[in-house]
Amino acid sequence: MKLKISTYSHISPSHIQVDGKDVLATIPRSSFDEDTLAIYKSLGIDYPKFYKMDAPSKLGFLASELVLKSLDLKQYYKSEDIGVVLYGASGSLDTDQKFQATIGQPTDFFPSPAIFVYTLPNIVLGEICIRNKFKGENYSFAMEAPDSVEICSFIQNIFEQEQVMACLCTWTEFQNRDQYRSIMLVIEKEECLQKRDMNEKFSNFEEETLKQIFYKDL
Amino acid sequence: MAYLIADHIISPLGFGTAENFDTLCQGHSGLAEHIHPTIGPYIAAKIDREKLQLAFSDELSLLGNFTFAEQLCILSVKQVAQKADLDLKSSDTLLVFSTTKGNIDLLHTKQFDQSRVRLGKMAEMVSTYLGNPNKPIVVSNACISGVQALLFSMQVLHSKRYKRVVVCGVDILSDFVLAGFSSFQALSLTPCKPFDKNRTGLNIGEACVSMVISLEESGNVRLSAGASANDANHLSGPSRTGEGLSLAIKRSLANAGISPQQIDYISAHGTATPYNDEMEALAFQTEKLSEVPLNSFKGYFGHTLGAAGVLESCITAQCIKQNKFIHSLGFEHLGVSVPLHVIQKTTDGPIHTALKTASGFGGGNAALIITKA
Predict the structure, then answer these.
(1) Which of B137, B179, B184 sits opposite A141 (nearest CB)?
(2) Alpha-carbon distance B314 to A208, whole Å?
(3) Against a cut of 0.95, is the pTM above it?
């Protein structure tokens, strides 16, 4: 089965890109919090839940909004046929440290449920599903660096076994406010894309393409 | 579809699957009262460190450079590899870990390099020590991690990249998790009571469980098929309708090519929080499974988070092998709004096909069909 990357986005301290091209170039890059807020505002969406999200979730959420802004997957697929597969190395570590700081001392022990809920690497996936009402397969993996062979093989498998009809696949890695990166790919079957758009040329979803996308700017 | 070749459990109920299962059948629970300096008394299922030290003293003496969670993984994977006559050094063997918080205690103790709080790093420490040449994979999807790690491993086997997969589920009791669930007011002050009308919340547990699975026809239990689905509704609150779990079950049945009538037994998630158990009951009703004998193992092991799906699938496989319906410990009076057949006494009876389910934070749900081979 031939799979294609219908679109992808990339957010890092040095990039805001869709399909490898800079977007929102007018946003002056300053800090993570200001940048993400600027991206959110520039997208012209009204989604107050964004303000409550932790930093890794904001990062992944915005990367998903960048690709889904111009591609309404639910127009073409049932919500339960759209999957999300997440990969990352640090997961929720940034928020874990914040939560730990609230329980570190017996004299200063005030654990916050609002922080605790974000101390799971898969929460960003939940945020994306809630926002888009994606109800399909949901996988969340930790690995030290993006492994193109593993990622390609797994995604190919879940398509071939008809577990998903379309899928978001992301490497979302938030180490700290200076080192972060989310790459969000939308993957669809070639046959589905062909029915929709005969003119556009899409990249194959394969190891080489993934390597190029994941490692291009490192 | 894949065969279960061997398994091994380290839990408060014992070391080894057989000891755990015998203890369960006798109705003993690993839950006990402990004291936290700030939270005060709490109920949890904690592995007895002294007993563990006695049981594995030779091995543990070599593992001083490893964290508690890593030590458990090493012990458990080595035991299961021995049982399965499995070569961990072979490139045909993949290690898949399932954990929600891994080495989270390191944030507090600072005893080890902080990089090991990263789940992938923890997995690499274990797999390198064991001499496995492949990059390990970690599934970390809150409380559905364990069931999903098994589903993922079945996928990996079908892709023919590896001949055998060791799935290792681990989570340890930590101040972090205890404080978190306490802040959520989700902890029960008494041993938890899944599906009971007086249930007030969950108890945390810890365990490390390994399973070897393969496509080679072997053993007498197989993992047939499964699926996952997201509620797309709320991060920490279960769906009010059970829609996501229902979808995961529906797809699992379809993938296995069976009807609800063929399910003999359900190993539910059953955390004993008011909303979770109600949600599950609704999903089982939607999928026409209300009359199927069901239990939750949380009354024995507590909630072992990322290990839970592996632990409970492992016990479910034992129930199938030994044709046992295990009492759902803590249950007295039905406390959900729809009918449900909760097992009230441990009895013998034929089990051919079982359904294992899990649901968790982030809106995830997963289901797995396990059958006699």
Answers:
(1) B137
(2) 39
(3) yes
State which amino acid sits at residue A72: D
The per-residue pLDDT string of chain B (373 residues; one tens digit each, 9 = 90 and over) reads 999 999 999 999 999 999 999 999 999 999 999 999 899 999 999 999 999 999 999 999 999 999 999 999 999 999 999 999 999 999 999 999 999 999 999 999 888 999 999 999 999 999 999 999 999 999 999 999 999 999 999 999 999 999 999 999 999 999 999 999 999 999 999 999 999 999 999 999 999 999 999 999 988 999 999 999 999 999 988 889 999 999 999 999 999 999 999 999 999 999 999 999 999 999 999 999 999 999 999 999 999 999 999 999 999 999 999 999 999 999 999 999 999 999 999 999 999 999 999 999 999 999 999 999 9
- DSSP letters of B9-65? EEETTEESHHHHHHHHHTT---EEEEEETTTEEEEEE---HHHHHHHTHHHHTT-TT
Of B159, B180, B251, the CB nearest to A99: B180
In B256-295, the residues whose Cβ lies within 8 Å of chain A are none
Supply the CATH classification number for the domain A3-215.
3.40.47.10
Contact residues on chain B for A133, CB-CB shorter than 8 A: 232
Supply the CATH classification number for the domain B221-372: 3.40.47.10
Classify B76 as helix, strand or coil. helix
Contact B118 A129 (CB under 8 A): no
Nearest chain B residue (CA) to A135: B230
